[in-house]
Structure formats: structure tokens, C-alpha cells
Amino acid sequence: MKAPVSWIRELVDLPAEVTTEVLTDRLTALGLKLEGIHAAGAEIRGPLVIGKVLTKEPEPQKNGKTINWCSVDVGDANGTGEPQGIVCGAHNFEPGDLVVVILPGGALPGGFEISARKTYGHVSAGMICSVRELGIGDDHDGILVLPPDAGAPGDDVFGLLGLDEEVIEFEINPDRAYALSLRGVAREAALGFGVPYADPAVRELPAPDGKAWEVVVDDPAGCPVFAARLVSGFDPAAPTPDVIKQRIEQAGMRSISLAVDITNYVMLELGQPIHGYDADKVAGALGVRRAHEGETLTTLDDTVRTLASEDLVITDDSGPIGLAGVMGGATTEMSATTTRILVEAAHWDAVSMFRTGRRHKLTSEAGKRNERGVDPLLPGIAADRVVELLVEHGGATAEPGYTLVGSAPQRSSITIATDLPARLSGIEISAMTTVENLRAIGATVTEREAGTIEVLPPTWRPDLNDPYDLVEEVVRIVGYDQVPSVLPRRATGRGLTRTQRLRRRVGRTLAGAGLVEVVSFPFVGEATFDKLGLVADDPLRTTVGLANPLSSEEPAYTTTLLPGLLEAAGRNLGRGAPGVALFETGTVAFPADNGPAPIYGVHTRPSVAELEKLDEALPLQPQHLAVVLAGERRRTGWWGAGSDAAWSDALAVVRRLAGELGVTIEVASANRMPWHPGRCAVVSIAGVQVGHAGELHPTVCRAYGLPARSAAVELDLDALMAAATDVAPGPSFSTMPLAKEDVALVVDAAVTVAAVEAALREGAGDLLETVRLFDVYTGEQIGAGKKSLAFALRFRAPDRTLTEAETGAARDAAVARAAELTGAVQR
Amino acid sequence: MSGPNTDYDPVEVAAVSPAELEAARDAALAAIAAAADLEQLKAVRTEHAGDRSALALANREIGALPPQARKEAGQRVGQARGAVSKALTARQEVLEAEHEARILVEEAVDVTLPTDAEPVGARHPLTTGAELIADIFVAMGWEVAEGPVIEAEWLNFDALNLGPDHPARTMQDTFWTEPADHHVVLRTHTSPVQARTMLTRTPPIYVVCPGRVFRTDEYDATHSPMFHQVEGLAIDEGISMAHLKGTLDHFASQMFGEGITTRFRPSYFPFTEPSAEVDLVCFVCRGVDSDQCRTCRGEGWIEWGGCGIVNPRVLQACGVDSERYSGFAFGMGIDRTLMFRHGLEDLRTLFEGDVRFTTAFGSEL
């Protein structure tokens, strides 16, 4: 909402010391937030004065143009009192006309500095201005010619043109629709400074007689009040008075014609949208009804709109002639020949207006007000004000008759305890202040039993329905700055939950392992999965789709965190990083397909079973953890050669994390895109798969611009954390001497280390403390298709020093079991 | 080796003369002093204190001396040998110390050599920032509540007094999941977590809800379809705006520094009534000479978030007795908070995944 300061001051008598800044501070504190203070002439630097054209000599030029060499009387504004010589390209003026002159040293909007300069063989000392050059209009057909009584040559024109007029732009919250009018803004200003306020909506109205025009309202719920008035003899050529034009433009609307400008002016003044019809184009009675599904209407913006059965329309004998409350129709539009004007001002159901506006993607100044709720007492008042202005400025005659269908809906009053504002704000607010402040906003307050009042909100405040709504009104007038600062003392929380603590632990562990966390968007599309090389029926392709995605390429919520990480890895490498190690934890989603989520009422709490239904309708949303390692992992330096990320780094991350959480994981070979079919591990906990780790498939590396051998992990973090050790049992360990035995076992290449290790462990018995693979050898010495695994076995007894015989026996038993289970042969 | 000799010939055996002994001792001491390194000292030891040395031989003869000469000779020889031995030990220590000192000098390294063999990791400031906020509240006895990102429409809107035709639903354009008539959305705020908390717990309730939220905003330097919020909810007997102010003032000073407080401006949110916008004293200029301040752009205040007293309609929908309890709620953007706390120019840096961005935050957050 843009409100010119002079208009506000016209409606409310503010003390002189209230500057615009003081005014906006106070209004912001009351809830009308300042967006900005604009002045049309803010970019203009004078001298900008009235000039009287003394002579005008047309001089044809070689380029075909004719310029005018003028002498202009600018009074003493040029310091000499002599006429000013100015070259002007426009022709729409004659000697004797008053024009606007900017003199050398001034500047026009856009940083256009004015100086005396040589042009077309003259020294042109200044410029005669058009409205466009002044930044106050679009008209560039000629220069601005002022009325003969505008003033004397040399007079400053800032005030005359409204260039010094400050316009305040407010951000109006949805509950303060009344402030989408000068009536409302001025009311707040009066409230803010405790000065009297003369409501411009107070008018003497004729008694309704239904004779202005026949109106039939079929849907009183959608249109509770409809007012109509008629004028005739209107002069369609009459110009819009400057003050109306300026104010409309300052408010951010365009001046169109006197009749349209007046309806807009009154809307800005009072907040009531008004529509004017060319009465000669309206056939028969006006009707208000819901549209027939599929009916069409061409609106004023020359758009053919197909209507829905919920849309409210205004009709005449020809059918719909307007989209009620939102936009008029083209067939009855006022034009340059309109002399009879039918004025409509109606009160509409706000919800219906909102739906129609949304359905037709139509935002209009009228719709904006109607969908937020307008004072239902305004229609007749606004129509009367429009008639008054049409008569005053357009030479029209008010036809007798005033049609008013319906009446303002009854409001119920609100009972409120007088101490509620004090209790909810924490400010000491007396019962008297509560009553006074509610009266100040226009409410009717009746005292009931002790400590209780009954409040009838003013008609322009449809937002006030509950006691708490009234509290806000009382408190904002007392001042939010009066709210004391007191810490609540009763919070007795139990700290972070175990899951929250574990999640932090996971993040710290991964960062400690040299990984950098990434936060990426969860939107994916088929192309994303193609890039990952997923087969057509891969379960990861079954996504939760978005009905209104930002990009049609990515219309779904992701089932995997890898795409975002892979993109980020590619971005880092593309920006010159020699290597990158990234991780992300986040939500992925899998459709539940349990039908729609219910919509419950809001007056009671849904039952436990009903709440469960809500959750059942939601997708499964596990937390995942993903890692991508690409390029240099350990740096090459003076200490020696580094190494690039490999499949084993991915598993190292998994094991480190599992170790940190105290989770025992199993690792087995797997074949799963986007991983390398021979270098992918499936990770399980107690036999249940929780994710994969390993080297990425070469096609995936290429697709994302990553070096070959890049590695990745994706795990179900929820499952991992659920398996975390809850209470770790205290370890007991022996301090007896350690006995060492190393063995080298030859097995088939296909036999896994895990299998051999498990066999050794099983065979060695209780004396075995640790077993660790320390070397793998393949080569001629052991033959093709074989590998030699070197294990370090470490034995210790809880109570004694082991003898060589005992250790040897345990070692032999271990080797024997390995031979039995894996075909291992000791070298 | 000569053993004790009881059957000796006094003619053949004579004690080393004092002069000879003295000469041998002096020669030994001189050689010891002259030994330049441990190698030379080892040779000196063999020559002057070894089995074949003059002093060792003199010592060996003592046993063959007549008893009356033995004591005197023994004393002389013993003193000489003692002096040599002592000198050897002393010299040994000196040379060893010199040796070690030299080795240490030789082993000196350039300590400015890089040591960055291992990669450096970091957590994202959005994560650590949310944890910092959570910790501030946990320290006050609050708890951290969480909920699903993909949420039922009823919980995201209706339960929070945003009815199907509420204009606020256009203020926050929503991602709907398919099919759209299944009433499931990507949550537009973390408020449904508050609703869930009220629906499943009994007051007193003091929870903060940090989390990821979505709106259909085109992605640019200041807008993102995905961002992060933290909301707080307190439901208790006698809760007022004063408690809200106290809580936010405490939060502000913990997050931005001692003395940073908040101010309230009337505003509108469907789930609160009365409602307020929260501004923060600019933590850079602190309202002094704000005209020059790039953080608050001359305002002296920074818009931080929204808050208010929980609308009784919300309490009603969530099964809280609004006669007995009142509550306050607040919410602000974590991304936005980080942007002005750290002077970030472009929101997109948070989501690009450039490691240079993330590692720059170190452990400050």
C-alpha cells in the first residue's frame, strides 16, 4: 500500500512536529510496517521552475527535423531576469504558454545533468521538460504545458507537480486489510498520535429505493450487499483533476480516464472496490450468481476466461458481464463515448474472492481488497462518493434512485476478561486501558460482570473474532516495546536424545576422517537415475513425485543421496581441487502408497488412531548417509607418494564409523549400480543389509566427470544408529606376556580373507587374542589362481605365560581349521 | 697374570719407580685430554689403561714386591690408576655429550615443511549452526524435537490455523506430492513438529525444532526452494509475551554476543495471536552510526524472524487445554541467520558443496 503523506494529513490532523519519519516509526510500531518512503522528485535537482514562452522560432534542420528556438521568461530564477534561450524539439506549445524549465546546474532522473550547451547553432541554456523526463508520467508526445493560472515565471514547480510529495509504502499484513485504504492508514495515524479522526466514510446517504437499476442477487452468501447508482450526462472527455491523477499514480496505479480514475480514487480513499459500467451497454437487470461451469467471459484485460461453478459473476440479459469483485468484463467497459455510468459497489464473500483470484491467477487491486475482507457498510457510501466526484469533475448528473440489495452480515460480540491483555503480554495493563484501547480501534465495548467486557468489533475489522485477537489490538497500542524480558523458569528437559547425540557423533567421526559435509537439494528425475546407471526397474526409481516441481527435469524427492554428492564432487574437482572427500546425511523418501492423508477438523484433537492414519499416509523417510571419495585422498609430499581414493577407502570410512558407534558389521561382495560390479561391498548388520560401499562404476565416474576409481558409500543411517551399542560393557584383558605366531596360507583366489580369518579364529580357540592379515601375495611361486595370505596370530592366556607347546598347538589347530573350511595350505 | 708371589726373588723384582709411574700417569692424562672423539678415546683407553698398559703392568708387579714395599707401591700405583680412570670417565662424558649435541644439530629439520598428508574434514555450518542453537536451548532445559520432512497437509496447515482458504497459503507456496489430492506436502516450515509435539505430549512443553523446509521459490542469491528453520514452542501455565521476549533476548545474546537484544513489531501469523516480527540489534554496529553499517544497511536492526502467543485455535486442534495453558512460539531461518552472522553474500554457497566454503568455518560454529 502506497499512501501519499499529504493525503494522510488531509484526513487526520497530525501535529506539525510529526515528520514523515516519526509518522512511519509510529505506524510501524502499530503494525503497518514501513517498506520505504518515496518521492517522485527525489532524483530531480533544481532549479526547476515555471517558464513563460516569449518567442518560438521553428528552424528546419538538414536531418529533416524542425527544432524550435525559444526564449523563455524564467523570472529571476536564472539570476539575471533576462529571458533564457532554449532549444526545444517539441511543438505542442505556443508563445504565452507556461512550461516547466530546468536550468543549467539542475539534474533530471537518471543522472541527467543539465548545462548550457551548444546545439543546432544556438547555446541552449536549459531544457523545457516533458512529464516523462520529470519521471511523473509516460507521456512523451510533447512537453508539459501548465494551466495559465499555474503561477508566475520563475516559481518553483516541485510543489505544483507534487515532486516534493513523499509517498509512504507500507507492508500490509493479511489481517489489516482496512489499511489498504487511506481511511485505514489515517485511522492508524490518529490512533498513533492520539489526535481526532474524521472518518471519510461518514456520509449522509439517500434512502435506498431500488430505483437506480434493477439488481437481482441470487447468491446472498456470496454477495451480502450490492449497491448501485446511476449518473448521466457525463463528459467522457473531461480531464482528471491533477490531485486525483497524482494520488492514483503515487499509489502505484495508472491514470486511465476520469471515470475509471474516480472509481480507483475512491477505492484508495475508502478501501471499497468499485466498478463502473457503461450503462448504455448493460442490457436489462444486473444479476449476481455463481457461474455455470465452462461459461466464458472476456475480462477487461482482454483475456477470455473459462469460468468455474464456484466463480461469482455479474450478469445482464446477455450473460456474465463481470467476474464479480475481481475484474469487470469487456462488453460493458466504459469508453471514450460513455455518458451514462452505472456505479457498482458490493460486498463479497472473501473466501470466494480468494478462490476465484487463485483459480484464474488474477491479482487486481479490487481482488486484493475483496479477498482480505472489506467493511460491509461501505458499498452505498463508496457509490455515493463516486457519484459525487463524477458530478463534480465530469459534469454528470446524479440520477435519482439508490439500489441497495442485502445488508451487512451480523457480527457477534466477543467476551473477554479485562486482564487477559495483561496476562498474555506480561505488561501491566489496567482494565481501563483495555477498554480505552478497544474503543480507540472503533470497537463497541460493554462492561459485563466484574472483570469481563463484551466487545463488538468495528465493521472494517473482519479479522477480530477471538479474545486473543483483541489482546493484540490492546497490546500494540500500549506498545510491544513495553513487553518486559523474563526467562521462563520451568523448563526441565532431558537433554538431547540418544539419536540426536549419535547423529552428532556420526558427523564428527566423518569430519575427523577427513570428509567434508555437503547439503544438497533432494530433487531428482529419471535422468538422475540414468546417470547412476540404474536399471529400468530399480527400486530407487520409485519415487515420491512432486505435483508442482520447480523443474520438470527433477520432479521427485530423491531415494538416494549420491546424486547431490557426485555433482558436488565434480564441481570441486572442476574448480581445481586435486581430490575431494564429501559426506551428506539427509532424508530420502520411498512412497508408502497407503492412500491419502486425512484432513481433520480443527476444533478437537484427532484421536490416536486418526493421528496414526496421518503417519501411514506419509512416505517412508529414512535418514541416509552417503560418502563420495574422488581423486587424491592422501597427498603426495616430501614424505613420499600419496594415493588416490580407492574402493578400500570407502570401506575404511564404513568401518571407522561402525567402530565409533560400536556396531558389528558384515561385509560381502555385491553387484549394485552405481558401483563397480567386482568392487562393491554390501554392508549388513546382523544379516540385514544397510547399504553399499566400494568403487564407482567407470560409466558413473565418467558421467559425473570424476576420475576413475572414485569411491562411494550409501548407508541407512537410521539402521546404523539403531544398532549402536547402548551401554558398552567394560573390557577385561590379560596383562600376561603375548605370544606371536605368523602363518602364510595359500588359498584359491576366490576365497575371501574374511572366510580364512573366520576359520583361523574358530580353530585357534580361546587363547587367540587377535588375528590380522598383514600381507597378500600372488605370483609364480604359488601358482596361478592362488593367493598367499599372511596372518599375524597373537595369543595370550588370562592367567599364565603360554608355553611354546601351547601356542604351537593353537596355531596348528587354527591352520587345520582353515585348511578344512577354505582349502588353505600352509606355505 | 701374576698371582700372589710368596716365593720371590727380591733381586729380580723391583717396584716401578715413582718417576716412571708419574710419567706413565702424565702420559695417560695427556693422551686422554688430547682424545678428540670417542674413537680416539677408545684407543687411549686401550693404550693407557688396558691390560698391556704401563700402569696395568706396574699394578701387576705389586704382588711380587716384598711385603714392606707392597703397601707404598700399591698406594702410588692405585692413585695413578685412579686418576687415569677418572679422567677417562670425565672425558668420555664430555665426548659423548659433544657427540650427541652434534648428532642433534645434524638431525635438525626444516619445521616449516608441510604436514598436510592427511585430508582435512569439516561439518557443514548449517549443521553446526543448528547444533549451536540447539545447545543454547538445551542449556535452558529445552528439548530438541524433530519430525518428517514430507508431511501431512493437515499438520502443516490446518492444525496451525491455516485453513484451506487462508491467504497465508499463498504467502508460502508449497510443494505438493503426487497425487496432489493425497494431502501430503514438503513441509513449508518446521511448525508441524510443534503440532506433533503438542499432540503427543502434555505440558509443560519446551522444545526447539530445527530442520529443513521447502517452498517453491526460484533459486537465487537470497532465495532457495530448500532452506532451514528453527522454531521454538513453550506451552505452560502463565506463559506470556514477556517469557517470549526473555527467551529470544537470551538466544540473541548467546548467538551474537552479550548485549544483543531483540525488539518486537506487530505482525500477522495464523498460528500466533498476538504476533510479532522479531528484530535483532545489529550485532556489528549495535545501532551506533548505523548509516555506515553494511550488515543492517543503516537500520540498526536486523529482521530475524516471527513470533507470538500461540493461537488458542492451534492449542484446540492439538488437544491442549487453552483455558489452563498458554504458549509462545517463534521461528527464524538458520540459513538467513548464518548469512548475516558471517556476512555471506550469496545463499547458494551453502548448497554448492565447495569444500573451501565449508572448511572455512572451522570450529567457530
From TrEMBL, chain A:
Its EC number is 6.1.1.20. Binds 2 magnesium ions per tetramer. InterPro entries: aa-tRNA-synth_II/BPL/LPL, B3/B4_tRNA-bd, DNA-bd_dom_put_sf, Fdx_antiC-bd, Fdx_antiC-bd_sf, NA-bd_OB-fold, Phe-tRNA-ligase_IIc_bsu, Phe-tRNA-ligase_IIc_bsu_bact. Keywords: Aminoacyl-tRNA synthetase, ATP-binding, Cytoplasm, Ligase, Magnesium, Metal-binding, Nucleotide-binding, Protein biosynthesis, RNA-binding, tRNA-binding. SUPFAM superfamilies: Anticodon-binding domain of PheRS, Class II aaRS and biotin synthetases, Nucleic acid-binding proteins, PheT/TilS domain, Putative DNA-binding domain. The keyword Nucleotide-binding applies. It is found in: Cytoplasm. It catalyses: tRNA(Phe) + L-phenylalanine + ATP = L-phenylalanyl-tRNA(Phe) + AMP + diphosphate + H(+). Tetramer of two alpha and two beta subunits. This is Phenylalanine--tRNA ligase beta subunit.
